[in-house]
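Predict structure. Chain length: 571.
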Amino acid sequence: YFCRIQALPSCRPLATMMRPTGFTAGPRPVAANPAMAGKMAGKPGYKVTSQSKKDEIGIQTLVGDYEEKGTNHGKKFYQKMQKIAGHEDVKVFLYYWDARDGADFSGWWFGDQVGGSQVWARTPNHGASPPRVGWKVPWDAAVAEPGILSVDPTTASPVAPPAVAAAVAMKPGVGALNPAALQARVAQATSKVEGIETGVQTALGKAKALTQASDAKLLQEISAELEQQQKALMDVQKTLTQDITEARKGGAPAMSSVTELSKLSPRLRMLQTGMAAEITKIKAWFTKATTGAVNAKKQAEMAEVNRVAEERDSKELNEALPSTKETVSTAEDSVEAIVMMAAPLIADPPDDDGDILSKATEEIELAAADSQTKITEARSQINLKLQQARKFAPETRKVALTEFSGLQQKLTEAQKKLNPYKSFKKEFRARAEARKSLQELTDKLATNELEVEKVKMMTSSADSGQMSEDEISSCEKVAQPVKAGLENMLRMVDQKMKAADGAMKDELTQMKDKTNAIKKELDAAVALLSRQRQSFATAEMLKQASEKVDKAEESLAACQEAEMPFLKGIE
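Prediction complete.
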């Protein structure tokens, strides 16, 4: 069904009502009179004729002269000039409709309006002007019957007035129903439409009561009921179309019945629109609900699979982790044993390179080689466990990676400690000399370390409350020179490290690390003293303010006492 193009140029036809059901009944067109011929003269147009032997009312409605009236969809359209006796209000147009509504609705058309609801003939031609032949009557006929319609352009020269002919009344078509039968058919069609309206409205009421959260089974049931009503609605529509076609065979006497039957179509179209919208909506909800249920089931199955995998992998991790930790601890202990073995030699190196020193350094290097083997084996074992851990279930994999990465870090630290002892004999003298040359800095560091411990002990009273001003001042007097001494040591160590290498650099690095650790403890004590100082200052400020308030209150009381005799009138 076409929307009128004058009102809604881009309106699409309703797909369910697109096929017209027949031809407008009416009398055969009368011959053009002289006045009409005068209007046609000099204007471009077309003459429509037919060679059909059938007594088709629709064909005779189209036959006549057409005059240009305007443009539609980029091509000119034309209007039939002759009036139809007894149906003067019926107009016939020849116009073009483009493919905006689909290829099946494009081409040249004969209809009661340009883009109107009633059409009689069509050709899928897209030329600039209507073709002479190739017209389908009715518009949805399977093939175009040769000679059924011919559309020929009229000459621009004046048209001679045709012979005057008497208007011939149109006879009813073959097989037309009598008036009583038409009325019975109208009543029966009306009853069917009312019945389907009741059924559809009931189904729509159930559908509108549903929500997106409704049960999937209920959604499916209502959807099936709507589809059943939709099928029944289509059957009623088909029957109504047949009734209108049969009624039109009655010619002019049947026009009132055709009108009554045609008025039922919009009611069916409205029902069809509501049904289609509800079916689409409910099907979408049902699809979402069933998809959600399927997804929930899959998630539950996946969760069960993950649970089983977590239990299996967690058990495997708990069995593998203790032995790996033991391997790493063994490697760490072997490195610590070497450090302890070498400490006496480094702290108090012998004056000469005798057999005792040579034997001791060889033992240290042999022990270092053994420790290196243990570290290498432990690292290989951890790398293998890491590869296996990456295949574990998510939570167990996270725990495993954390544990094994921590063990790797411990091996890295042990390796750093071990490296200087792998060639201990070669570097021993250099390390001993380096330590001897740094003895002065070592002594200063030890002294500062003792002073820091003293400051920490002096500030311990802050744990039980506010320190006195004397306590704070005493601590500050001790802390300030220690802080300056540590900062000076760090500067000296940094300067020496720029030119140092080998054993000397290692010793300086150890000294710097120790100095920074001591300074960190001192900074914490100084920060505590700063808070104590601020708290003490605040308390003093409050004390002074309180004293001033007391004096102000005393002065105010004295003023009130002095003023009282005057207020009482006593002089």
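Summary: The radius of gyration is 55 Å.
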